[in-house]
């Protein structure tokens, strides 16, 4: 609830500022606005990629996914640093990460015959929530759309967008 109110307030504030600047013949190009536009564009790309997503607002979608990214990243970092007991065969690590992946797939509506291959990367040196590189490459080639990706070609579900 609080996030939705904050998003609505931010949208309203930006529209007011844009209207003021338009009257003055100026364009608003602050770091916050660039960040907002980049988050919105990423959210719209995700909505195109996941047409059955339960959250239809691109900004709210990105914020929900970013929180889950931070949670998964924290778990994988703790595991790597020896601060998380993964169990003998990694069952405790799976038990911690599987619910996060399930929430991601539920939010994105990623179910059915051919779901997008979303997974949790257990290496804490990059983003935790990714899409397979082969699938990402094929999707970009077929559709001409760009998905935020890392150097390995993996699609990134919830990147940190700074407005830079």
Give your account of this protein's structure.
The protein is mainly alpha-helical and about 160 residues long. The protein has one domain (about 1-155). It is about 55% helix and about 5% strand. It has a three-stranded antiparallel sheet with strand order 1-2-3.
What's the gist of this structure?
A 3-stranded antiparallel β-sheet has the order 1-2-3.
Number of strands: 3
What class, by secondary structure content? mainly alpha
- Strand residue percentage: under 5%
Categorize the overall geometry: globular
Question: Treating each run of at least 4 consecutive H or I residues as one helix, how many helices?
Answer: 5
| Structural Rg | 18 Å
What's the main sheet like? 3 strands, antiparallel
Order of strands, widest sheet: 1-2-3
**How many structurally independent domains?**
1
What is the overall pLDDT average?
88
**Helix fraction by DSSP (H/I, runs of at least 4):** 55-70%
């Amino acid at each position: 609830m609080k996030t939705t109110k904050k998003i609505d307030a931010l949208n309203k504030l930006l529209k007011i500022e844009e209207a003021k600047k338009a009257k003055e013949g100026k364009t608003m190009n602050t770091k916050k606005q660039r960040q907002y536009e980049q988050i919105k564009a990423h959210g719209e790309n995700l909505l195109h990629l996941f047409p059955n997503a339960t959250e239809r607002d691109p900004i709210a979608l990105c914020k929900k996914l970013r929180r889950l990214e931070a949670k998964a990243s924290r778990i994988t970092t703790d595991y790597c640093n020896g601060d998380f007991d993964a169990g003998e065969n990694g069952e405790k690590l799976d038990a911690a990460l599987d619910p996060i992946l399930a929430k991601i797939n539920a939010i994105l509506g990623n179910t059915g015959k051919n779901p997008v291959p979303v997974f949790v990367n257990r290496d804490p040196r990059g983003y935790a929530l990714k899409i397979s590189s082969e699938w990402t490459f094929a999707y970009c080639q077929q559709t001409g759309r760009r998905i935020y990706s890392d150097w390995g070609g993996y699609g990134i579900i919830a990147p940190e967008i700074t407005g830079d």
